[in-house]
Amino acid sequence: MRLVFLGTGGYRPNERRHTAALMLPEAGVCFDAGTSFFRMPDQLRTRDLQVFLTHPHLDHICGLTYSIVPLMSDQLDSMTVYGTRRTLAGVNNHLFSDEMFPVALPKTEYRDLPDRVPVTGGGTLTHRALKHPGGAVGYRIDWPTTSLAYITDTTAPGDYGSFVEGVDLLIHECYFPDDMSNWADETGHSCTTPVAQLAKNANVGQLALVHIDPERPEDDPIGLDTARAIFPNTYIAEDKMEVEFGK
Fold first, then answer.
1. Which of 68, 76, 158, 203 has the fewest Cβ atoms within 10 angstroms?
2. ∠ Cα 117 123 126 (to 5°)
3. Contact 64, 81 (CB under 8 A)
4. Share above pLDDT 70 across residues of the chain, in percent, rounded to a whole number
5. Which helix (H) or strand (E) covers residue 151, if one does?
6. What DSSP character marks residue 211?
7. Residue-averaged pLDDT of the chain
8. What is the DSSP letter of 50?
9. Are 123 and 245 in contact (CB under 8 A)?
10. Three-point CA angle 98, 104, 116, nearest 5°
11. What was the pLDDT predicted at 246?
12. 147-151: strand order across its sheet
């Protein structure tokens, strides 16, 4: 299975990273729709797109407005946006309010998250609530031969270890290095050591770190050696990086 990191930063874009969006092109699935969502049309491999939102903060939803071009130019036959009721209310009542964006997206349906959602390739998506100011949702997809989980905007290790247990690829936020752990606790984000320990304890295949602090655009903003000392198969994802996972 192929995953494309459309955007790997948090809060705001910088010259290196746009804000959160991930895409499984062959499955027609996206997670979140931050400022990097403008890259989505170039990766389209399906006529229908499922978008799963973690929460309604602007760095995760503002890119939905960019989808109007592929929807109107016949690149897409449909787009389905999933989220909690609170998230969808934020999208429809605020992002797409007449004052903010007075054009309804064509061929788009908004759906409350059911317990399970079928995904192309015989996969099943499940989700669970995460602790974050205002709330957030973590996702997992299991296919017959592979699996992934996407956990962002929460403080590791949390109580979701069993939810991500054994996935081939864990994509987890790591906004802060360990020496800023107090900020992680205060803002509802994660720092390096607890994320790596979570990956080790959950026996995942590989760990990709995302939602990086935009104030730290350097090559190693979170202390990668620290993470790899705990869980060796760890890397910091970069915008437009593509990875293959599973069988």
1. 203
2. 40
3. yes
4. 100
5. strand 147-151
6. S
7. 97
8. E
9. no
10. 120
11. 82
12. 117-119, 123-130, 136-142, 147-151, 169-173, 206-210, 234-236
Tokens of 24: 């499984």
| Extended strands (E) in 1-135 | 2-7, 21-24, 29-31, 48-52, 78-83, 108-112, 117-119, 123-130
Alpha carbons 150 and 209: distance in angstroms, whole number: 10
Phi, psi at 138, each rounded to 5°: -105, 150
Q: Give the residue-averaged pLDDT of 80-99.
A: 97
Residue 137 banded pLDDT, cuts 50, 70, 90: very high
- Token pair listed for 113: 């998250």
Residue with tokens 């602007």: 58
The residue behind tokens 């962002």 is 152
Backbone angles phi, psi at 30, to 5 degrees: -125, 145
Answer yes or no: is pLDDT of 245 > 80. Answer: yes
* 3-class SS of residue 185: helix
CATH of the domain spanning 2-240 = 3.60.15.10
Contact between 117 and 87 under an 8 Å Cβ cutoff? The reply is: no
pTM higher than the cut 0.85: yes
